[in-house]
């Protein structure tokens, strides 16, 4: 199982980012996927969950989670970014106990 996040970076407050998670090594379309984030000095927190067929979506705040099963890719859209969104963002496939390496999002003027 391999998960590779991308799309992070430095963005000004109020901006937007779309994070991607490329999945391989398992049948991506069959699994619930999640995004977590971990800010400096804080515990990792769940920000979004999506079912295998884009059903059962739960999100925190300004996040939008989606997936393209044909491309084996998970997405996280974050709008109106705030400094408190600064964190490393991880994708995970909980049933396979697998995590990506994370992508850093820094929100600063």
Structural key phrases:
mainly beta; 109 residues; globular; 0% helix; single chain
Number of E-type strands = 11
The tally of helices reads 0
Overall helicity: under 10%
> Based on helices, strands and strand pairing, what is the structural class?
mainly beta
**Relative strand content:** over 45%
Order of helices and strands, N to C? EEEEEEEEEEE
Main sheet record: 7 strands, mixed
- The coarse overall form would be globular
Give a description of the structure.
The chain starts with a strand and ends with a strand. The chain is globular, with a radius of gyration of 13 Å. The protein has 109 residues and is an all-beta fold. 30% of the residues are buried. The strands form two sheets. Strands 2, 4, 5, 6, 9, 10 and 11 form a seven-stranded mixed β-sheet that branches. 0% of the residues lie in helices and 51% in strands. It contains no helices and eleven strands.
Topology (SSEs and partners):
Elements: E1 2-6, E2 9-11, E3 17-24, E4 33-38, E5 45-50, E6 58-59, E7 63-68, E8 73-78, E9 87-93, E10 98-99, E11 103-107
Parallel strand pairs: 2-11
Antiparallel strand pairs: 1-3, 3-8, 4-5, 4-9, 5-6, 7-8, 9-10, 9-11
Overview in brief:
The chain is mainly β and 109 residues long.
């Amino acid at each position: 199982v391999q998960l590779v996040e991308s799309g992070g970076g430095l963005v000004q407050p109020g901006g937007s980012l779309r994070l991607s998670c490329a999945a391989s090594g398992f049948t991506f379309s069959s699994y619930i996927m999640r995004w977590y984030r971990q800010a400096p000095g804080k515990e990792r927190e769940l920000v979004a969950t999506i079912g295998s067929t884009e059903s059962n979506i739960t999100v925190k705040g300004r996040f939008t989670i989606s997936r393209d099963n044909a491309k084996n890719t998970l997405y996280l859209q974050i709008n109106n970014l705030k400094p408190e969104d600064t964190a490393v963002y991880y994708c995970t496939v909980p049933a396979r106990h697998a995590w990506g390496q994370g992508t850093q999002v820094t929100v600063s003027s």
